[in-house]
Design a protein that fits this description.
about 160 residues, alpha+beta, four-stranded antiparallel β-sheet, elongated
Length: about 160
């Protein structure tokens, strides 16, 4: 049975990835990952959510961990919200250590889809430096130092 043809990209622009049981897509309007450094104490993550919420920033995904007395939070925001997000966080004395373009890939929910996606990147010699899920759908945020090769591998 032939599979139905999928749109080529998200929002009418999704692209089918080869050999994937469920088609994965990569967003074209790339969001930004902000790395926020906090104190490792109760309430810091709440502050990030409150400050960004008050500034009208939509956090699309997040990863948080602690180490060496600090909290490290990766916050996924839309490109057009980056300046406001950084300003709001800095105003409340939170350090924004990094800002970088990331890929947001719809990986689907089939068993093995993460392995297939990661294998395609590995075969293109793309090193995944950071990965975490978004808050909606079955999407993965991917950061790498070779965005073009990552895009080409997932084309």
């Amino acid at each position: 049975v032939d599979e139905p043809e999928l749109p080529r990209t998200l929002g009418g622009n999704a692209r089918r990835l080869p050999e994937r049981a469920k088609a994965a897509t990569i967003e074209r309007g790339m969001p930004t990952d902000l790395t926020v450094i906090l104190h490792d104490k109760p309430g810091e993550l709440a502050r990030v959510g409150e400050v960004t919420g008050e500034a009208g920033i939509h956090i699309r995904g997040m990863a948080a961990f602690t180490g060496e007395g600090n909290g490290v939070v990766h916050v996924l925001v839309d490109d057009d919200e980056v300046p406001r997000a950084i300003a709001a966080l800095k105003k409340e004395h939170m350090k924004v250590a990094d800002e970088r373009e990331v890929l947001v890939v719809d990986v689907g929910g089939a068993p093995g889809s993460l392995g297939e996606l990661a294998r395609e990147l590995a075969e293109a010699n793309v090193n995944v430096e950071l990965a975490y899920p978004t808050f909606t759908r079955e999407q993965l945020v991917i950061a790498t130092d070779d965005m073009q090769s990552a895009r080409d591998a997932l084309a």
